[in-house]
Structures are given as structure tokens and as C-alpha cells.
Amino acid sequence: MGEQKKRLQEFLDKIRRDLDRTIEFWSKYSLDKEHGGYFICLANDGHVYDETKYTWLESRQVWMYARLYNELERFKTPEILATAEHGAQFLLMHMKRKDTGKCYLSLNREGLPVKEQRTIYSECFYLMAMSELHRATGNQQYRDEAIDMMKQILHWVLVDDSGLGRKKLAGNMPADTLAVPMMLLCLIEQLTTMDPDLASSYADTEQWCLSQVTKHVQRDGSVILENVSPDGKELPGCQGRLTVPGHAIEAGWFLLQRAQKLKDPTLKSLAIDKFILTSFNRGWDTKYGGLFYFLDVDGESPVQLEWDMKLWWPHNEAMIALLMAYIERRDADLLEKFSTVFNYCYSHVHSRNAAARVCFHVFDNQKNEDSNDNDTQDLHQHRNSSRRPGT
To answer: What are the boundaries of the region Disordered (predicted)?
Structure first.
């Protein structure tokens, strides 16, 4: 146990240093002091190479500053809070449509709309930003925005989704995706962190989410499928056989988070054994390391062209999930898996010479060496994207 504690401290020290340099970099270069909000597209030296403001990332940046302010003493500074509010005011002014309640996916520098999606996810990240900032400031407007948006999202999901603008096409197969209920679980966690008294208001929705998420466990618990039929059956074709390891692992730690609050041992086991471990073991590339982006559970070639890319975010989700699972069980194998992902990220994904960013993907065993400002050229080397998984 002493050796494990030492290793955990080493992981923590390294991640803490990276967090500090990342926040320093983004606080220095990303604020748009003329038009509000944040610049998203930053090069390693901090210059802005595109002024488009993507609202998922704008909202997440507000949330991150506010969460750091709320949770870590070294970030509880007027500057961090002011930076969070700087982004939030831009979102309040420009992100949400007054006529429909929908949020834009992207805006130009001045805040004029560029693109709108027919999903709920921009709205989800808007809610998270507002609710976390209410925790930091006590500002009633942020709370009202978060709760009102939750009402709107639940209406689209549970009552009538016509406001999202998706057409009903005769040949389209009815399908329930894992993303929607797991995201609602995340929102319930966020809102009840903001105000624990809201738990009773969302108790029925929480149970609905749990039942919806768990029906994606298929084939006697051996796979987590991204899409299932509304009655919880496997769908035919590529859509039905699709598994997204990073997404399933992320759903796992959402479930584990709820299971810990509900003190539900059965749900804890489902979260760790099925969503986290089964998905990790299936998704990990045993030859080159890293998590595949998309997989076909029957081993057919996935239709997604980027299926074998090793994106950063699934590895981030895996580290969160495996560490949470280790804390829950104190199983050395879970810590070993965390260490495997950690080491892969720091040898393949971590940007050693710049605080700005990490590379988005690694093809097989090719590494990003960050040798110069043209490092993205190394990411676009030829690969045979028609090969089957594992070959």
C-alpha cells in the first residue's frame, strides 16, 4: 500500500504541474478582451489561428474556471473568477436563441451565429457553465439560466423533440443512443452539486436515465453498444454493432458517481465491471497501445473513417474512470491500468514543449515529438484505414 501511495503522489504531482501551466497559458492567450468570450483556436506560441468561437468549448472553459475556483484553494482568486464571468457574459449575450431556447454550436468573434446543431449538447454545456458559476458567485441569474435550460432539455428528451429540428424520415431506424441518458445523469450531478435540495426534483429523471443507460449492456454483459432499439434490443447492421470505448468508459464513471451517492453496490459493480473494464479491455490496442475511437463488436471494419485514431479525450475519460474505480475497490490491477493509460498519454499525447495543447490523435505507434511548430504534419501520415480492427 505504501508503494501505491507513492505512485499516486507521483501521478498527482505531474498532473498538478500540467494543470497549472495549462491554466496559465489559456488565461494569458485565450481571453478576447475586445468582444468577450474566449479564443479557442490557439497555436503553441499562443497566437490565434481562427476566431470562430465554439460554444461547447466556450462553455466548458467557463465551467473549468468556476470549478477550479470552487474546489481548489490555489485557484480561488479574483482573477480566476473574473475570467469565468468574462466567458459567461459572452454566452448570456450570444449563445442562446430567444425564440426557441436552442443554443448555437458556433459563433463568430463578435457573437453572431455560425452554426446550430439538432441535438441537446450545446445546451447541456451552457447549463453546466451557468450552474457552476452560480456556485462561485451566488448570482441568481446563473442559477435561473441553468434550471430553465434543464427544463427545456427534459422537454426535448422526454416530451417532444420537434423543437430540435430533426426530421422524421421513413427509412430511419428508431434508435436510442447512450449519449442522451448519460449526459442527463451528468447534468443531474451538476445541478445537485449546485443545490443538493434539487435532488428530489430530479429523482424520477435519474431513475429513467439509469434504466436507459443500462439497456446498452448487451450480449450477456460482454459489450456496451452505443445504439439500441427503444425497447432495449440490439439493432441490425453497423449502427447496432457500434461500440465507442471512450464513451462507454465515460458513462461508467458517471454511473459510479451516482452509485456512490445512492450507496448502491449493484450499480457500482455494473459501472466498474461492465462499463469501465469491459469497454477498456475491448478498446485498448494491445499492439501499439491507446484506445481505439470506434469499434465494431463483431470485428467488422467500422464505417467511421477515423475509427483507429487515438484521440485524447477517451484516454482522459479512462484515467478518470480507472482512478475512481481504484479508489472504490483498492484493486491494484485498476491502478496498473490507470498507470498504463497515464504512461501512454505522457509518451504519445502529452505536448512537452508547449503549454497550449495536446495532439488530437496518434496513428498506431507514431508519436508526436513536438519537434517544431509544424508538428501537426506528423499526424497525417498514411494509414490503411480499410484494415480490420486488430489486424
So the answer is: 370-391
Judged against a pLDDT cut of 50, whether residue 112 lies above it is answered with yes
Q: Is residue 18 part of a domain?
A: no
Q: In DSSP terms, which residues pair with 224 in a beta bridge? A: 217
Q: Which of 27, 176, 53, 179 is CA-nearest to residue 109?
A: 53
Better-scored residue on pLDDT, 366 or 139: 139
State the pLDDT at residue 244: 98
What confidence category does residue 352 fall into, taking pLDDT thresholds of 50, 70 and 90? low
Is 202 found in the same domain as 135? no
* Residue 269 falls inside a structural domain: yes
Q: Are residues 160 and 225 both part of a single domain? A: no
Q: Give counts: helices (H), strands (E), the chain.
A: 13, 11
Three cell numbers written together for 303: 464505417
User: In the chain, at which residue ranges do the beta strands (DSSP E only) sit?
Assistant: 41-42, 48-50, 53-54, 106-107, 113-115, 176-177, 217-218, 223-224, 227-228, 242-243, 295-296
Q: How far apart are the C-alpha atoms of 202 and 208, rounded to whole Å?
A: 10
Residue-wise DSSP of 7-29: HHHHHHHHHHHHHHHHHHHHHHH
More confident residue, 387 or 200: 200
223 plus 314 within the same structural domain: yes
Q: What is the pLDDT of residue 372?
A: 40
Range of the structural domain that residue 348 is part of: 176-365
Q: At 312, which CATH number?
A: 1.50.10.10
For residue 22, tell me if it sits in a domain.
no
Tens digits of per-residue pLDDT, 172-213?
999 999 999 999 999 999 999 999 999 999 999 999 999 999
- Nearest Cα neighbor of 248 from 287, 203, 217, 202 is 217
Of 164, 197, 225, the residue that ends a domain is: 164
Residue 350 has a pLDDT of 74
Q: At 21, list the grid cell.
A: 501551466
State the pLDDT confidence band at 241, using cuts at 50, 70 and 90.
very high
Domains of the chain: total? 2
- Judgement on whether residues 112 and 254 belong to the same structural domain of the protein: no
Q: Give yes or no: residues 112 and 205 share one domain.
A: no
Q: Where are the alpha helices (DSSP H) in 30-72?
A: 55-71
In a domain, 379, yes or no: no
